[in-house]
Design brief:
alpha+beta, globular, 239 residues
């Protein structure tokens, strides 16, 4: 990581394995700045600090707001969907506003796979519906699965194995069940071509504005999503 990237990273991330704070150090062998768990240097995965809305979306409101908060909020969202809603309003691929019909379709699709669009569990990505990271965590929480997921930038060896080009952003997501590391991982990649590709409909805009503006965060989220998709089977989509 670049120094400034590392400094920004430790502000809103913690260790995924123990929840401890992170530190930035200089690695002489790698000749670069790296981020480590401040309590256990052997811990390698990091997670972004949950906001209150994220905690609600993932089913963890009781931990942040007190016993019964999650159930109360979900009931309130169901009875008054316009008052409490985390439904996405933009396509996450091209950042275009969703129409009311698109949102209705998203709500129905979410219900078909056992998720709740009003809690931000699904999104549209270039017009196609997908479960979000929060949706997958919600399922894990409901199933009382104590898997911890952490992300980090791919190291030089991993980048070489994945044939990642210089300047591209590559992240890996790993999971732990207790102290046991899962054999499955997820990779997230954002290439320079994707970052700089112009929109075919509007040459003055970028095709993927989110990837252009936040390539590192996008690669991180993609790796986390890929791992969660592998380890969290959902219900069959209902006709």
């Amino acid at each position: 990581m670049e120094y400034e990237d590392a400094k920004r990273f430790i502000i809103d991330h913690v260790c995924a394995q123990c929840g401890g704070g992170l530190v930035e150090v200089w690695d002489n062998d790698k000749a670069e700045h790296v981020v480590l768990c401040g309590s256990h240097r052997s811990h390698t995965g990091f997670k972004i600090i949950e906001s209150v809305s994220t905690a609600v979306a993932r089913g963890n409101a009781d931990q942040r707001l007190g016993p019964g908060a999650q159930k109360d909020l979900e009931r309130f969202a169901a009875n008054k969907p316009g008052a409490v809603s985390l439904v996405v309003t933009k396509d996450l691929g091209n950042y275009r506003e969703l129409t009311p019909d698109m949102i209705t379709g998203l709500v129905e699709w979410a219900a078909g796979v056992g998720l709740n669009a009003r809690l931000g569990h699904v999104c549209l990505y270039y017009g196609k519906p997908y479960p979000t990271i929060d949706g997958y965590y919600y399922v894990l929480h409901k199933r009382d699965t104590t898997i911890k997921v952490g992300t980090r930038p791919c190291n030089a060896f991993e980048r070489e194995g994945l044939q990642v080009k210089k300047g591209d952003h590559a992240w890996i997501a790993e999971g732990w069940l207790g102290d046991t590391k899962l054999p499955t991982v997820g990779y997230g990649l954002v290439t320079q071509d994707e970052i700089n590709e112009k929109s075919t409909k509007d040459p003055g805009e970028f095709r993927a504005p989110v990837a252009h503006d936040h390539p590192q965060r996008m690669a991180e989220k993609r790796s986390e999503w890929q791992l969660l998709r592998k380890i969290t089977p959902l219900e069959e989509v209902k006709a």
